[in-house]
Automatic annotation (TrEMBL), chains A, B:
Domain FAD-binding PCMH-type positions: 37-216
SUPFAM superfamilies assigned: FAD-binding/transporter-associated domain-like, FAD-linked oxidases, C-terminal domain
Keywords: FAD, Flavoprotein, Oxidoreductase
Cofactor(s) it depends on: FAD
Protein name per Swiss-Prot or TrEMBL: FAD-binding protein
Biological classification of the source: Bacteria, Pseudomonadati, Thermodesulfobacteriota, Desulfuromonadia, Desulfuromonadales
Source organism (scientific name): Desulfuromonas versatilis
Alphabetized InterPro entries for the sequence: FAD-bd_oxidored_4_C (IPR004113), FAD-bd_PCMH (IPR016166), FAD-bd_PCMH-like_sf (IPR036318), FAD-bd_PCMH_sub2 (IPR016169), FAD-linked_Oxase-like_C (IPR016164), FAD-linked_OxidoTrans_Type4 (IPR051914), Oxid_FAD_bind_N (IPR006094), Vanillyl_alc_oxidase_C-sub2 (IPR016171)
Chain's gene name: glcD-2
Length: 477, 477
């Protein structure tokens, strides 16, 4: 239990309005966007500066409290759920864009800046910040960095890590680490920046981020292609890449997802189709024209049932927006939505679709699959009800068997959502006990007391390997 | 001293032809391409497989021998000099290209494959491996990864790290770590891959590497622009970037370098010019045409003394090749060549040129400056004689003062050459004692006995902070 003295200290350092500790205030900070895992913190603080983060860190360390950093809570692996209680440090009030440097093509932001706000701010200056996770309207840059978020443009433009140039980070030992800078090349010492990126809040709390910006593409073309089966869609993706065309976006939805999205946004998607690919090529107009032609040719060669080219920028935007609703659309139809994040080398895409189909039948589940086909990054989503124990067991068996194949094919258990709580049991299977051992030693070297985001990523020998689920909570979609 | 039993074990495990321990055989393995640092190892092994690397690692650990991994020894910060003696593990016989996967656009190589050999092998299949360190004709991929090597195309295409997808690595604890894969997105656990990349052989020995390949640019245009002063050349670079044009190459040479290169390669560079920029734009032909026009316009606007467009691919290639000779060309004119690797945010480029000029005068030195102007990554090179103690002291003071400014401007003490032995004293100035402390804890978590490449990167409290220089050695250029 946190002491009243500690609460007083926090109020003193952060201001009373930035410290919450009454149960009714804590309720909404007990979960993120991952179903089935939630736990009340003891106190939530909203720092407005790096120094305040440091002060909160010091008080928590003194009290021996678990410390869980979070942004908007859009995480999909439970990374910001305070499963051991303690202190949540919520960075959403550190939301200033500190600088857009047009000479060096960089932007520096506080960790709580919303992804889309940064995108819009730099776009207003004719620049481009490419990473666009599905939740960009509410997700924060700090969360994006901690999870190394991907997005719809990852295929051509890469993920969050590819744009992080510098980080300011409060470490558990009470120091402030600044790593990287505006120099585009830097090999001075170990690469903390890329280690912190994707560390899921277990090594330090990021408070400031400098990202790289690029010139925006001058033109783009958006296609929708429909298919009578998923395998053909997968083959189309492979053929486009093999033709040395790297579209900015190559997204897939299966029949279940098409129908849920159509129910939700009503833009006239054909409900009878087995698969849909949303493809966008961008760049110089001449290149776009050539690539668009080549993509269309490939789509016709593999016998896509229908190819539709967006006629206006508005139409293209509405198609992309429709794709972004996929998770919410699926989540509407069942009490529980189990979303996975299997990623395979692109050449295994068609095989993975087959496997998902086989397992869906074998385990008699309702599954909607969508995702970043061009990256081999799929989100097979089981639509179920967590009150149905038998169904939950079948869902678990489904993922278990799927991941076995994914790993055998050289894939990964998480392409962009992180390990958090949700994937701990799979991690050792992927990186082996030796890999986990090195990770634990690194964790230990940053956080010897193990107070920072405890119970995340690591499973084995961890007292908090099973999430504590409190009665009376339910994640609503 | 290594025991005869250990030598026998090594011969048994690696084959007698792959184990050298006679002094005359060891002589050439006592240095890399960094002047002034050299030390004899006790034994050198040439493993031909990951298992042999592991066997050598185990024997060295049992004997308590320092272990220094190396490739071709083109490093410029002393990273592969066995300053504490012990065992050198030379990976040049692990030189097989294991796979070029055209479906997934990846290549998998052993660590000893020469950079240019990989470039040529993938080019033969219509693919492109962009990183091109100056030493690409002899440097190995393993060395490139360990130092996170840059190159002439870094501006547009990034550095080695941006292409590393997976690594196989022998750790000091005798385990083999495989990290990453052919999936283009992977967030399962801490990012070892990017931590190992640039770790300068201090955390593990990389034996296999999977790199990302991309489609090659369809067209390119090469320019030479001459200037009457360095500052204007720096301004041209900033203006080109600010115009949202990202050339693939933007290289600079000052007057001293132009003259040394002209002496060396005799291609008619105008000796009276104060600065030269080598600029290359590439991509789709239509984009190249537009960007080339825009670049030319900027060059004329800033009053470049002369702008020359390469008329043929051969001419373009010979200009790039001439730039690649810069270091060798400078090294011919004096007994000792002290090469530095200062990197600043691009907006500080012109200031940095001014500062180099001021310090050259102040310390009465002969300095040739060249480098990757587009990256803000410069190689101010002092041409001196290490037998002249006074001159060496002035050279030291020159760099000392230069780095003070570079750091104040948000730059880095190493853009691409690494810390190794040469930069240890500067590292703490850049990342602070807190940063060094975290680095040491990470080092400890990988290598608790401290046997792997000891004496590198870290200075403070390190028994080997001063390189041991043996009499009778001299680095020849």
């Amino acid at each position: 239990m946190i002491s009243t003295t500690a609460i007083e200290h926090l109020k003193e350092k952060l201001g009373a309005q930035n410290v919450l500790y009454e149960k009714e205030d804590l309720l909404v900070l007990g979960y993120d966007s991952t179903p089935g895992v939630h736990h009340l913190p003891e106190v939530v603080v909203y720092p407005t500066s790096t120094e305040q983060v440091l002060a909160a860190m010091e008080i928590a360390q003194r009290e021996g409290l678990p410390i869980v950093p979070r942004g908007s809570g859009t995480g999909l692996s439970g990374g910001s759920v305070p499963v051991q209680g303690g202190m949540v440090i919520c960075l959403t009030r550190m939301n200033r864009i500190l600088e857009i440097d047009e000479e060096n093509l960089t932007a520096t932001v506080e960790a709580g800046v919303v992804t889309l706000d940064l995108f819009n701010a730099v776009a207003a200056k004719g620049l481009f910040y490419p990473p666009d996770p599905g939740s960009q309207k509410i997700s924060t840059l700090g969360g994006n960095v901690m999870e190394n978020a991907g997005g719809l443009r990852g295929l051509k433009y890469g993920v969050t890590r590819d744009y992080v140039m510098a980080l300011k980070c409060v470490l558990p030992d009470g120091s402030i680490l600044t790593t990287g800078g505006k120099s585009v090349k830097d090999v001075a010492g170990y690469n903390f920046k890329d280690l912190l990126c994707g560390s899921e809040g277990t090594l330090g709390i990021i408070t400031e981020i400098t990202v790289k910006l690029i010139p925006p593409p001058k033109d783009k073309r958006t296609f929708l292609a429909y298919f009578n089966d998923m395998r053909t869609a997968g083959e189309a993706v492979s053929k486009i890449i093999a033709a040395k065309i790297i579209p900015s976006t190559m997204e897939i939805m299966d029949k279940a997802t098409i129908n849920c999205v159509e129910d939700y946004v009503k833009i006239g998607l054909p409900r009878q189709m087995a698969a849909l690919l949303l493809i966008e090529v961008d760049g110089h107009p001449a290149m776009v024209a050539e690539e668009a032609e080549a993509v269309e040719k490939i789509l016709r060669e593999v016998n896509a049932a229908e190819v539709h080219v967006a006629k206006t920028a508005e139409e293209a935007a509405s198609l992309a927006a429709a794709r972004r609703t996929a998770l919410s659309a699926l989540a509407r139809v069942s009490p529980t939505t189990l979303l996975e994040d299997a990623t395979v080398p692109r050449s295994r895409l068609a095989d993975t679709f087959d496997e998902i189909e086989r397992l869906t039948e074998k385990y008699q589940l309702k599954v909607g699959t969508f995702g970043h086909a061009g990256d081999g990054n799929l989100h097979p989503t089981v639509l179920c009800d967590e009150r149905n124990a038998d169904e939950m067991q079948r869902a678990h068996a489904f993922y278990n068997e799927l991941y076995e194949k994914v790993l055998a094919w050289g894939g990964t258990v998480s392409g962009e959502h992180g390990i958090g709580l949700a994937k701990k049991e799979y991690l050792a299977r992927q990186i082996g006990p030796g890999g986990v051992a090195v990770m634990k030693r690194i964790k230990q070297s940053f956080d010897p007391k193990g107070l920072l985001n405890p119970g995340k990523i690591f499973d084995e020998g961890d007292p908090c390997s099973k999430p504590h689920v409190e009665e009376g909570f339910r994640v609503s979609h």
